[in-house]
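Following the same procedure, backbone shapes were mapped to integers, yielding the entry below.
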Amino acid sequence: MGLIRHLGLSREDDNIFSSSDFRLILTGSGRDRAAAAAGYCLGKYGKDSLYVNYGSAAAASFTGDTFFAGQILEKSTGEAYYPDIASDFFPHCALITSDRPCGSYQILRSTFDRDFTVPVLFDMEASSIFAVLKSQVSPERIIFIKTVTDSGEFNYNNARNLILKASEPVSSFLLSLCRDNNTNNDPIDLLSEQLSGELSCSESMKIQILSYIRYLDSASRLKELSDLTDSLRNKGELPVKDKRQGKKILSLILSLCIS
């Protein structure tokens, strides 16, 4: 596998390869395997590690292209998650976790009650991984990268060749991410800390607000968030008087993400 070679990994166990900086876990396909692997990693490596899920995805086009998932949608429940999109190293997409591609744009819009302004990809694992990690790991430490290998009819040899070709730029990003891991004073983090204080956020609310801010930043829509919060401050509604009001404003911020 290209990642093993480019990152200089050695076999640690049957499905685990490692170096001093990286642990690569081969999960296999499907929600249950992915969730089990995420739980294993969380228990062994803790909430302060960086978690990157990389694998194949299906899409109507873009075969061979690699994307960051800025939003993850679970088809069976409609639940949305907002992991970190890290940078502009790869273009951004919406990633739908489903047993198979959902079909036309009209079906997607009806299923999720939203318009899609970025490419839509499908996988079988992402939402289950995020669901396991989200209670303990902050969203800026969870990244999803997907390479489009097919349009819904999976072919192992084609997928293997496309993943191998994509492994070099993916490895370059992971190495740069490792180098930058100790960077402080991220303006998004500072904004999140400010709003978390003004909203009297619990720990779980802090994770939510950071994920919403990072998503809006990735969509170049932080101005809308600034307009909203400035309006609330002018009305005397920020800082909030209690957590109940904080939850109401958090819902307003979520509405920006899905509008």
User: Anything to note?
Assistant: The CA atoms of residues 103 and 168 lie 31 Å apart.
